[in-house]
Amino acid sequence: KFIITIDGMKVQCQKGDTVLTAAKRADIHIPTLCYLKEINEIGACRLCIVDIEGQRNLQPACVFPASNDMVVKTNTNQLRKARKNVLKLLLSNHDRECLTCTRSKTCELQDLAEEFNVDEVPFETNRTNHTIDDNSPSIVRDTSKCVLCGRCIAVCRDMQKAEILDFTNRGIDTQVTPAFNDSLVETDCISCGQCIMACPVGALKEKEDIEKVWDAIEDEDVHVVVQTAPAIRTALGEEFGLPIGTRVTGKMVTALKRIGFSKVFDTNFAADLTIMEEGYELLNRLETGKNLPLITSCSPGWVNYCEIKAPEYISNLSSCKSPHQMFGAIVKTYYAEKNNIDPSKIFVVSVMPCTAKKGEAARVENQVNGHKDVDAVITTRELAKMIKQAGIDFNKLNDSEFDNPLGEYSGAAAIFGATGGVMEAALRTVADVVEGRDIEPVEYQEVRGIDGVKEATIKLGGKEINVAVAHGTKMAQELLDKIAAGEKQYHFVEVMGCSGGCVTGGGQPHVSSTIDTDVRVERAKVLYKEDNIQKVRKSHKNPFIQKLYQEFLQAPNSEKAHKLLHTHYVP
Ligand code: HC0
Ligand code: SF4
Predict the structure, then answer these.
(1) Residue 502 falls in the annotated catalytic set
(2) What is the pLDDT of residues 145-173, one digit of tens each?
(3) Of the residues 14, 35, 93, 311, which has the maximum number of CB atoms within 10 A of its CB?
(4) Which ligand has the minimum distance to the alpha carbon of residue 366?
């Protein structure tokens, strides 16, 4: 441990600290733009420059190591002017149509311009030719908004191991694009949307489907059913100024009813259904010893990755459709029959924390009797926009309950949105089935938390099974490499495409890169709380799931269940 002085204050430091991390600890704010903690620490934008005694030039605080007795100034006339000039230069090559930009109010460049009181953009240059690429079903790229911070490049390469984006050209013509300036759909992009979450401005956003949904609601001939993913209720409040980690389940349901959906159901119901199908699929594979480990397939970013980058594992993927697809298939068959509604007049909307779900819903495999399981997917951010458009004062709403019976769920379903949640939910059911009794406790702490790969060995019917959980496709690849090397035999593996799982999917509310909270942890806490307060905490004990099998599906993995609830993959 050693001491440095920042703006006259003594700050205790340890080895490995940069000037930026030291300043943060002392609550001294140094502005940043290209900096993303542990992901993009390249000192490129030069907004975090500081004056260090003994150094000839101003130095970027995000990469400059703190050392004993160092004296730093972060707030001088020279620094303020230099930073303001950096911002002016950035703005001179930026499409400044803030009023119509999706990131207005969550834009980090806008915040900085305000912070530094930038009141003019004097160097109007000939702006770099720009590209708008909106061919992907999930992601829209607009280089006229790009500030060349490189954050999307780093996330795509280092967190997702997808390596789609890079700097191209030089000088004033520099851009961030896929190779050969191809459209994202022509590349191996997995549509995870993590580049959107990394982008400080409006250069990357989801392809919006809001108008499709409004049109369906307006059409009196159409019965519009909405379902919400487990992870929406833990993040939607942030769009209305509520703190990270606020549970808004009841308000969300009220808002959806006010928007005008005919029925407000819950993807959690179908998460319980997935556990039934996938649990029995696991038991079957354990018995035959074929295609082990079974690997979960509910995260479409991960499925895209597997199909493109690791096709040798396609036969390991669970054949189960993801919960929201199963949900759509049940609505257009069981629910349609029961309520005497023509399935072609039903429009299913999924509210998802995920951009890849848009592409998943569009897959031709995900249909039953010629009807798409899901007709439109909107992200948490898009739902927030709809609530605002509808003039609903979200924070003043009372709580409501989901509609029955497709809104009833167990605690096991509630935790799907956090990394390890699907694994834990499956173990709760599989253990009971194998042991033939009600096993307590229901929690599997080993698979919780945000370590990149988590492992556990579980005793099942006198045998031991090895399970592993990975989140973020880079960690998934590392786990696959381990499997390939034969280091350990796994029986069941959960993979989620995004670090933290769905709670930090590419469709979730933007969080400023300057805050230190681990959003993955805070949002997951809400889901574990939701689990704790449920009377039923195991999927197979959800009475409505039991009824669905009795009345309609017969048994898990039955022929009918296979036709409606399972899918296949394309190498
Ligand atoms: Fe997820 Fe899902 S848990 S993928 O993470 O399995 O997106 O929240 O909706 O479908 O249930 C996302 C979240 C879901 C699905 C569920 C699964
Ligand atoms: Fe890379 Fe994912 Fe963005 Fe595609 S969506 S460019 S894979 S980060």
Answers:
(1) yes
(2) 999 999 999 999 999 999 999 999 988 88
(3) 35
(4) 1
Read off the pLDDT of residues 356-398 as tens digits, 9 standing for 90 and up.
999 999 999 999 999 999 999 999 999 999 999 999 999 999 9
Which of 41, 238, 277, 281 does the annotation list as catalytic? 281
Architecture of domain 123-205: 2-Layer Sandwich (3.30)
Question: Which atom of ligand 1 has the smallest separation from the CA of 299?
Answer: 4
- Verify whether residue 360 is a known catalytic residue: yes
Q: Is 382 a catalytic residue?
A: no
- pLDDT for 127 equals 72
152 is catalytic: no
Candidates 360, 408, 494, 530; catalytic one: 360
Q: In this structure, which ligand is nearest to the CA of 494?
A: 1
2-75 architecture in CATH? Roll (3.10)
SS3 540: helix
Location of each CATH 3.30.70.20 domain in the chain: 123-205
CATH of domain 211-565: 3.40.50.1780
Look at ligand 1, atom 6, and give the residue with the nearest C-alpha: 298
End-to-end CA distance of the chain: 53
ipTM score for this prediction = 0.94
